[in-house]
Amino acid sequence: MADTTQQIASLEKDERVREMSPLRKALIRPELGAICGTILVFVFFLSIAGDSGMFAPEGMINWGTVSAQFAIIAVGACLLMIAGEFDLSVGSMIGFSGIVIALMTVQWGYPVWLGILVAFLLAMAIGALNGYLVIKTGLPSFIVTLAFLYILRGLTIFISIATTRKTIIGGVKEAAEGDPIAWLFGGKIFSGLFVWLADLGVVGKFVAGPRAGQPVVEGIPMLMVWAVILVVFGHVLLTRTRFGNWIFAAGGDTQAARYVGVPVNRVKILMFMLSAVCATVFATCQVMEFGSAAADRGLLKEFEAIISVVIGGALLTGGYGSVIGAALGALIFGVVQQGLFFAGVESSLFRVFLGVILLLAVILNTYIRRMITGER
Amino acid sequence: MSDTLIELDNIEKHFGPVIALNGVSVTVKAGECHCLLGDNGAGKSTFIKTMSGVHKPTGGRILIEGKEVRFESPRDAMEAGIATVYQDLAMIPLMSVTRNFWMGREPRKAFGPFKFFDFAKANEVTMTEMAKMGIHLRSPDQAVGTLSGGERQTVAISRAVYFGARILILDEPTSALGVRQTSNVLATIDKVRKKGIGVVFITHNVRHAMAVGDRFTVLNRGKTHGTAERGNITAEELQDLMAGGQELAELEGSLGGTV
């Protein structure tokens, strides 16, 4: 027994474990790669496009809106990826939900709130079906949701042509007037604040045209509000709740999680549903803003969501990641896309730039993750 | 010391035409370390899974404190106080020690209408429980992947003990470990046994079994042939029973008795 006591004493201070400084400890986190990327991207665009209006209020609303769009779908993709699955049907889901709302309201004359409600219910049902199929068949979600990428897109175009002979359905804005919940998606908040700021001269005013005298920034689009709400919700859910622990466990090791009683199937199906709901939030905001729905909306959005999530430090195979990281990934994505436009750079270079950032972020993230998790 | 916690009587398990278990009888008493020995393919894993509610037995009875039970799921077995620490599935390396320790049983604290994971309590309990087993963590947020194999087993064992396990099944906890880590795990088994928990120690390493075992049962080709008390059986006899005798005897001769 004396032997074991000695061993225990020696375990207390293992000479091979180096003490970590608090600074290092605070820095080594899943989001570190995305934080560095964000700083880099902002420094870069401040230096090449600082005087182009990119960082004026209207410029910020511009790239902020684009980033918010990415962020909304990235939250769903992030939590799903941490739970160990993919959803490649996000883009098609966006097109589908938009058409559902437009058909319900414009074509069939139902109130907009009902159209939105039905779109969300359908999205949840399709998300649940995705999840159910993945779990029941044991097929990779990559395949199942790839099938739904085609099924949903084809169905969307078919339904839209079969009922209206068009793939673009307009007139949603008119239908949404006075609707009790349409403003939640298409509205803008803090308009008064921007009028006041414009009077102070902080924000510019239109000098000519029908809106002369109004501030150039109307308000904060609800799209951004949704992005913030979803990011905060996702982050708190993942890091501060029991369910969040189950998400990590489901993606980290399905079998180990099942053995300790984590309801893995329920967690995964719910995350598929959340992914579809996020796509529908995106679609609803877009439909309300444009006043129309088109069957080809949301093309390639699933990859943009996944790229944001991966830039944000999540592991493609699940069990590891951060919603804050994914949101920063979305911010990087939006700033780069719009920033190159502000900087007057040939737009085809956007993809080159994006590819380089993706590669750098993933290399850095892999290195950080190894430090945290002891992977070899 | 002689109260029987669980009795498995003549357990059979068939998978279609394959007979994985063909009459396995084991009893586990409080405060003992019951070693279940068997070579690869002897049916050890099937037996553990039957005992922990993953598989339902095709035949035979399971009695807990004299009452017959049927486990419909691993949950049922867990509620009956049977905890299993699987060889490779014990922990999720990407997650922190605290998250692993509480996985499936996270403590919660209400904040208004919402309930949050109570990290303050979870971290504190994890640190104390680990310290009791002789492992001093740098921090409860450290990922399990940064721990050694023996430390991971210890986290899993202390988790099971903390959550009130009365019967602890350890599936080859020492098979992938080095010498020093093995002795740490064996020391942990000894501590657990002293708390009055019945430990089922599955291994194919006779020396590890002899080091801590109170009773020994050998599983061979899906069957058990009685249980031996410590002191009534030698390592060589156990080895022979496991391998089914002759062949190994010949092999051992050519290897100079080192197996």
Total E-strand runs of chain B: 12
Number of helices of chain A: 17
Helix content of chain B: 25-40%
Number of helices of chain B: 9
**Count of discrete domains of chain B:** 1
Query: What is the second-level CATH architecture of chain A?
Result: Orthogonal Bundle
Mass-distribution shape of chain B: globular
**CATH domain class of chain B:** Alpha Beta
Structural class of chain A: mainly alpha
Q: Fraction of residues of chain A in helices?
A: over 70%
Q: SSE order of chain A, as H and E? A: HHHHHHHEHHEHEHHHHEHHH
Note the main sheet of chain B. Answer: 6 strands, mixed
Low-confidence segments of chain B, given as residue ranges, are none
By DSSP, the count of extended strands of chain A is: 4
Q: Could you say what the CATH topology of chain A is called?
A: ABC transporter involved in vitamin B12 uptake, BtuC
Poorly predicted sequence stretches spanning 5 or more consecutive residues of chain A: 1-16
Our count of domains of chain A comes out at 1
Largest two-chain interface: A-B, 33 and 38 residues
Domain ABC transporter (chain B): 6-246
Pfam families (chain B): ABC_tran
GO molecular function (chain B): ATP binding; ATP hydrolysis activity
Keywords (chain B): ATP-binding, Nucleotide-binding
